[in-house]
């Protein structure tokens, strides 16, 4: 594996390898010395053209725990704010001799572009409304851990139903998750108001439904997507209150979930909008497990890309 | 491919029994001992030694696994390697850890294991037990407990097969072939 640009780049075997390694990586979190020497002497640059807390910091921790040198560059306070083009910024950073570039960019396809310009490994940390493959990996890893509590040697998600609820049109998390979860064998149902389902949805390997309550009793995993503030006044739904009524994971819906089903949310959450506080803090909420998994999964991906011979 | 059997199942069993006795004798019993096998075959051997110790002393010696992949000095020279499982059965601080591997060759795996162990805790002492010592050390490392010394040439390959993994107990020397296994 040279780059990680899309969740579609990974087959089931590769995903399983990444997850098994992530399980090993997760043990480092509980050690007195949180450090493995595997990427000593390697340089990883986080190039973030968009705000991010958890993705950037978990990539940073992941790199550092593997002993790589990690440098963060954000658009604010860099030459990007002086009008430098993406290509020039990427070539400049690459010219310093970095081994991997972790890119987040508001334009869909920016990491793919960057991967054509430079020799370093490129990891997509979220590009526009396109993809966010490491988020999908950590979501699926968290789900696998959850399912393995009852089925310890579970290898695929065959027979599992995952409902992804919210703004599908603008969600890179949803896109990457659809690709990854279907590769793993899950049945994915997208739940959203018609205005927030993309036009070409028929070509996706998923089911769609506009009625959350119809899907809820069938879902083994309920994945809530964040409602982005700029969409609230965009005419996609009448009012935030009405969105919550129809698509929020409210307390009554929490009680209507299938027994044993779990809740995911990629964060940051709008408590009271797409997810109630009761649901966010429920015993079957995996939201904090997702954050912890973020570091392990990113360590695993960095090692897969940078750990061996070039 | 030319292959010569050095140890059969009975000889391996006797070598394991002798090593287990030696380890108990050298440490005046099983107290504070922790057996850490290096995956894959070192872990199987560690379990065998623990079984013998249990039979001899009635002592349940904790057995763990110590993967050294991340600590190898040749990580950069090969494609990304599969990482094995690391399992610490007890806190190793203050204990006597016996590292266990199938073949001792260059000593580089043991060096990596010492580094890996150092990140997990601070044992009072570390010893090394191997089923086969084939010589050709590249580092100042020696084994405390050896099942069998087997003089070899560098072009030869020592193949250790254990029933738990390979379905058969056998140690053989092969003239040439896959240099992946056989202790580096």
Average predicted local confidence, pLDDT of chain A: 94
**Cα distance, first to last residue of chain B?**
21 Å
Which structural class matches the secondary elements of chain B? alpha/beta
Low-confidence stretches of chain B: 180-184
CATH-scheme architecture of chain B: 3-Layer(aba) Sandwich
Oligomer: heterodimer
Strand order of the largest sheet of chain A: 7-6-5-8-9
- Sheet with most strands of chain B: 5 strands, parallel
Quick one: CATH superfamily of the largest domain in chain A?
A: Aspartate/ornithine carbamoyltransferase
What is the ordering of alpha helices and beta strands of chain B? EHEHEEHEEEHE
Helical segment tally of chain B?
A: 4
Summary, kept brief:
The complex is a heterodimer of chains A (310) and B (184). Chain A contains twelve helices and nine strands.
Give a topology summary.
The complex is a heterodimer of chains A (310) and B (184).
Chain A: H1 12-26, E1 43-48, H2 54-65, E2 69-74, H3 86-95, E3 100-105, H4 110-117, E4 121-127, H5 133-148, E5 161-165, H6 172-183, E6 187-191, E7 207-209, H7 212-215, E8 221-224, H8 229-232, H9 240-247, H10 251-256, E9 262-264, H11 277-280, H12 287-306
Helix pairs in contact in A: 1-12, 2-12, 3-4, 5-6, 5-12
Chain B: E1 3-7, H1 9-26, E2 33-37, H2 41-57, E3 63-65, E4 96-104, H3 108-120, E5 125-133, E6 145-149, E7 157-161, H4 163-166, E8 170-174
Parallel strand pairs in B: 2-3, 2-4, 4-5, 5-6
Antiparallel strand pairs in B: 1-8, 7-8
Helix pairs in contact in B: 1-2
